[in-house]
Fold this sequence. Notes:
Elements: H1 2-22, E1 28-36, H2 40-48, E2 53-57, E3 62-69, E4 77-84, H3 91-101, E5 106-112, E6 115-123
Amino acid sequence: MERTSISLLFLLSLLIIFASVVNQIRAQTCDENLSSCENCDQRCKAKHGPSSVSKCNGPDGTCICTYGCASFKPAKLCIGATDMCTDKCPTSCCDRQCAIKYKNGKGGCVDYAGYRMCICEYTC
């Protein structure tokens, strides 16, 4: 019976981690009109970095620069897990593990089915 509980606990942890990875934020792109096409690529890369992409658009020859930009959506909170909480790894240890494993991660010990799990919250 104990082996079944541990297996279910392991599967639950994997499910939590999988769900948090699926919800990761995707990169967003922005476009800026840089007016004339003269030196379009050079101006685009100088303004928005080497990964930006430029193109001359339309009959009037306007330079459009596409670049990676930040999303203004509020940060989403995701949940993950690290390991079991023990006497050697109490809540403070769990919190440290979450901070190492996840960006802006914070953690605490939660009792679940007779086990103390280290559960993390982080922005994703």
